[in-house]
Amino acid sequence: MNDFPPQPLSPLDGRYRSAVAPLTEFLSEAGLNRARVEVEVEWIIHLTNNRLFGTSPLAAGVKEKLRLAYRDFGQAQIDQLAETERTTRHDVKAVEYFVRDRLAQLELDDLSELTHFALTSEDVNSASYALTVKRAVEDAWLPAFRGVIEKLRAMALDLADAPMLSRTHGQPATPTTMGKELGVFVWRLQRALAGIEQTEFMAKFSGATGTWSAHIAAAPHVAWPNVTREFIEGPLGLTFNPLTTQIEPHDWQVELYDRVRHAGAILHNLAQDIWTYISLGYFTQTPVAGATGSSTMPHKINPIKFENAEANLEIAGGLFGTLGQTLVTSRLQRDLTDSTTQRNIGVAFGHSLLALTNISGGLGQISLARDVLLADLDGNWEVLAEAIQTVIRAEVVAGRSQIRDPYALLKDLTRGHRIGSAELVEFVAGLDISDDAKQRLSALTPADYTGLAESAVRARLGEARL
């Protein structure tokens, strides 16, 4: 075992690395440290822009050179920070020394004491996590989520006219269309998307206990709440939280993770339904050249992408739930439970992004077997019992029928029985209803009995694309 080569413990860093790679730029340890350097550097620039303590705004070229500390952040910088932290035993302090070193390299030693000026680690961390999560969501996760919605929308519109047998409680029920069933998921996911897009990515910047005490001690006449708000909302593009303890209380994170978890629950429902449609033969799967479906049964194409999506959504949902439960509380001014917890944000989003990748791939490898849907409908004429008894009720109300209890009449005919078109036509012909009603019912087939399914989908999902 001593010769066993180092291996990634998490499948996200091994088997599935390529699928979650877009997140590593932001939600990895290195991504967090790069954001910390960005916060520290931009704070120095902001302080000098405000001419505090006799400083003057840096020349544009100097600012750009200083910003290279985070813009050119690569393996050498990652290694340097790791080496420094082995001594400091404090990750944010290591970042401070890193920035001081960059100032020295640029011969800006006179500004070194503005590094981490009047800040607590949580000021830097709250802004850094807000930056990394914001960028991960907007640049990596949301595009994948929108991509799934868009692919599903296209399928819903394409299949809006494809009649299929519904199943309520797993039993044959009033027909619908496949497009309408998929359209329901699009509608639900769009609502979830709207909530996620409204997220406020918040940060505090008010010192060790949220009181700007050190700031005021250094410069009593400076409007520090305004200066720090302008910093958070200006260069960083975040939302400022003006009233906090030592920590930003993470409520925005909890709101975001709950919304992403909810979106995942909808996707989990979708994956299960698509899996079921495949098992019913409604969807056929496109064979992938060279792929093995089963180790012993050569004929099989397993719906593995939807099964993998289910599992990853469950893992992501559990992690997002834990994040939400843990981050929303902290003892008094703060405790460090949030520190460890937030290091797993990338893991939660990683499993969620992996699920999105699986669902997108799975949707691209199925096609509708319209003949199977029509055969299923043709084998379940009893589902027209709802239409017949409803028409009878309307006829009774209109004074064109004397039938008592239409529901019981149709229940006796259809419950527990398979009947075909001939039996229904004969039954309708003998009913005490108007000739017009008889004609409408006699012409009705299960495939025709889809109501406004098609038009509802086209009306609700036909608008401009995401």
TrEMBL record:
A biological process term (GO) from this entry: IMP biosynthetic process
Pfam families on file: ASL_C, Lyase_1
Keywords: Lyase, Purine biosynthesis
Presence of the UniProt keyword Lyase in the record: yes
Keyword Lyase recorded: yes
Cross-referenced SUPFAM superfamilies: L-aspartase-like (SSF48557)
Molecular function terms, GO-annotated: N6-(1,2-dicarboxyethyl)AMP AMP-lyase (fumarate-forming) activity
Superkingdom of origin organism: Bacteria
Domain Adenylosuccinate lyase PurB C-terminal, chain residue ranges per copy: 330-450
Record-annotated Fumarate lyase N-terminal domain positions: 59-309
Pathway(s): Purine metabolism; AMP biosynthesis via de novo pathway; AMP from IMP: step 2/2; Purine metabolism; IMP biosynthesis via de novo pathway; 5-amino-1-(5-phospho-D-ribosyl)imidazole-4-carboxamide from 5-amino-1-(5-phospho-D-ribosyl)imidazole-4-carboxylate: step 2/2
Function: Catalyzes two reactions in de novo purine nucleotide biosynthesis. Catalyzes the breakdown of 5-aminoimidazole- (N-succinylocarboxamide) ribotide (SAICAR or 2-[5-amino-1-(5-phospho-beta-D-ribosyl)imidazole-4-carboxamido]succinate) to 5-aminoimidazole-4-carboxamide ribotide (AICAR or 5-amino-1-(5-phospho-beta-D-ribosyl)imidazole-4-carboxamide) and fumarate, and of adenylosuccinate (ADS or N(6)-(1,2-dicarboxyethyl)-AMP) to adenosine monophosphate (AMP) and fumarate.
Protein name from the UniProt record: Adenylosuccinate lyase
Organism listed in the record: Microbacterium faecale
